[in-house]
Design brief:
With 169 residues, this protein is an all-alpha fold. Among the domains are: 1-40; 98-146. The protein contains two helices and no strands. The chain has helices at 3-40, 50-150. The termini are far apart.
Length: 169
Amino acid sequence: MSGELRGRLVRRALVVTLTVGVIAAGIGTVQIAALWRADAAPLDTAPVGMSTINDQYQAEMDRADALGGQLAEVSGQILTLRGAVLTASDSVTGDTQSAVALRAQLAKAQAKFDKLQGQLKVAQTRLAALNAAAARQAAQNAAARSSTSSGSSGSTTTVSSGGGEPDDD
């Protein structure tokens, strides 16, 4: 073996030895850190036992059953409310149709009312004209009576110009 070969083998052995030493130091460091951590953070509570887990599981199953029953009750209430909403919707639809029919009747009644109001105004105008004519006739009759009573000493008779029949009071 030559000196050069020996130098290479020594270097390689040294590198392998140092690499194994570094790995061993890393593993040792991790072990020491784990021990320190375990000493610094001891378990305050013991792990949960299997009977406790079974009890909690049974409690959750009972709770799930109770919630299932409540869900069934709520489902029944929802069905009842749906029926009520459908009934109310049908009622609103019927009321809407009735309202439309009533609006049509109201429009007809309003038209009839307007027509009657127009006829009433014509009748009131005619009545006012008749009242005015009656007042004029009454005034003429009164004037005729007063002239006949003052003219009874003379034998003249006055005829009214109203064109009506003589008054028989």
